[in-house]
Here is the input.
Amino acid sequence: MSQGVCALRSLCKPNYGGVQCVYSGHMQQRRAKSQKKVQKVLYTKKMKQRIPINWRDVNYNPAQIPSAWKPDNWDEKRKIDYKREEEMAKYIPGYKKKVPLEMQEDYQKEPAFFVGEETEISGSLKQSLFLTKSVMPVTGLPRQVMDFVDSHPIDMEDCSQDERVKQVLRHALLFDIDPRTLEIDQQAQPAKHDAYKIYSKPDRYVPLIMKELIRLCNIKLCQAGGYFNDRMSLEQLTSNITFKRSCDSFNNDLLPGIDPNWKIFMSSSPAIQVLSKRPLQPFATTAEVESSANIPLPNLYPILPVINLKQTHIYKDTMDTGLYDGFPRPNLHTIVMFNLHKLGTSELYAKMNQALFTSLYSRAMSVHGEAKVLETPLTGQCIASDGQNFQFMCMQLNTTDLSNDSGIKNMVWIDEEEPSELLDAVEDRPPSSTMYSECSHAVWWTPEYIDNYNPHVFKLFKALWLNGVAK
Amino acid sequence: MFLQSSKTIVTVSLNVTNVLRNLSTTSTSCNSVLQTKKLLHKLQSRFCPKNYFYTSSIKNGRYGHRLVKLWEQPEYTTKPLKVYRTGGRLPTSRFNSDDKVPGRKWTSKIGGGLSREWYWIDTKRMTLDEVNNGVIYQERVLKVKEDDNRSGHIALVAGPLKQRWILATETMKPGQLITNCATELTGGMEFKDGDAYPIGIIPIGTVICSLEFRPGKGAQISRSAGSYCTVMRKQENNTIVQMPSKREIMVNSNCVAVIGRVSNVDHQNEKWGSPQKLREYGLRPKSGRNNIKRDGRFGKKIKVKHMVVIGDKPLRQPHS
Here is the structure.
């Protein structure tokens, strides 16, 4: 304000030609006095004290600070009063009291990376192969399985093998009504556009298809001899392992704070686990096992295999196969998994690898007790499906020594023509074996209501199931 | 001031009444009332809460469009979070309840809009500790994606131990490797598009984006689509950078910058063809004079630019 006044004064000042120097000196003194006053008005001492030093770093805008919307009692509600919880547990039956972390049952001092049933393995198959120190030597499934593709055909008098399978699909997808929806429909008459509601959801039709296909295979198993009695199928059998994995290939001195030695806890509880008296024969010969030392592990650079895995202090530090000692059918034959939550192909392969590794590794450690190269390798198979797409995997456990990235490695076979492309692919791609493209009432041009049926898929399914049976 | 007026008024009124009672007992009524009226301003200034200041950024500009409840998720996630519409209203607390509800209208002409998802973007390509330690590490781009809450694209990136979202540069593609380097290597360095360095290392004349204003605070400058800065010159511990507004700033040389332009360069050529597009973005219809053709931007007049001064000698003015 005063600056403006000064400017006005300078405009109003008269021009005294010769006496200018004298007058200007007079004005300079007056101007200096006014400027001192201005500084006092703008920033007083009180004002300077009130302005914080870090005013530029702090955001005072209440609309931009989301914590302005935060309820006042948010932090108080989150605090746990453990004494009160103990009192509540006394008087309320069935009350689950909260216990501090260090007082819990499975508390361990050393933290471990947790790979459970619900964890999302973001690196998918590549990451799980690196964690389990396994390698894919050959494309496609092993030769031992592929010999069973054309054997044991189901040819009845009435209908052939493919028609039996189509019957199963039609039963599950077209003519099966979910009883959970019937209670809702009784209350009110549904509209025409809500007709899709009565058809079954994947959590009903996927197990139904798989169990029916297993039943078809078991018919042949009974006919072959005493093989049906050797087996036993168990649902939701949990198996837990803890192991130490260390990575040699990661060397970056300029990145401190990374320890390449990890302790990993892995658990799995697949839907169906088939056990047998006799073990499966190994898929690879001893020469092929020794040659696996030359094959490098998949290149994960720059990602480490424990990316996005959470560290926990609460885990079981023991090996569990899920079976008691002296169980009559201890050997693993196949694992069946249902893809109900629309996992991607490589993610589902990772889950299959996880389930196979936990069950095989726990069996190997229960026998030997130490980490070493196995003389008689253990084998297992896995089938997973969406009801439409089928994925097959075979695994052979050669070593339990995971402290190196070199030496003899475990081996994995998957039903893909180009597995190396699937590992390096940025986007997810569908699996190679799809049983049909569509099965619904909308496919009116085919009398079977099934479009693009692929008979080769059930042959693979049957070959895995009848592996180890005499021809 | 208006927000906290209720508290101040209460205190003031109480004090005034006390003063009046005291005065009524001692002295005459006529003079006392006059004195209290004069005192009111002083009382208000005295009982105004301390440490309460507006900066210019609060009073000007539009804020409070949408809300993300980050206190419910303290840890970093790559999953999208929910976004709530506020309708341009600031939060208030109700009587006898701890919850916050939308209160007074703060910004007008906001409301509605399509639902959005908010991705937590890590603006710190390198933290201050990593810059001080001289770290080098690489990351792989997994996905490049449009974002609802900003003009540029975003990229999902996987480092050695962490996955995170960052701002995508112009030539970023999935499967690519990008480096974060805080040391000056002896051999020839390649400053590729999408790499992050402290600005002291970056040579003069390179195009950069998503620059930090203070070391370790996170990127603040040139984050919108297609924007870029240029490194002009260097002093001892500082470097001078030309912002997208052609204004020059001096920042500490430990501030991290990304090389290249921000993605979605054609964003400025997009046209919002209809008023429905405005509603989709959460802006309500406007009204008023449409006579805004004065050639300067946003209805401004054209002003004569002052000529450049070279060596204290003014050039010839256009009018005279």
In short: The longest strand of chain A covers residues 373-385. Chain A has 15 helices and 13 strands.
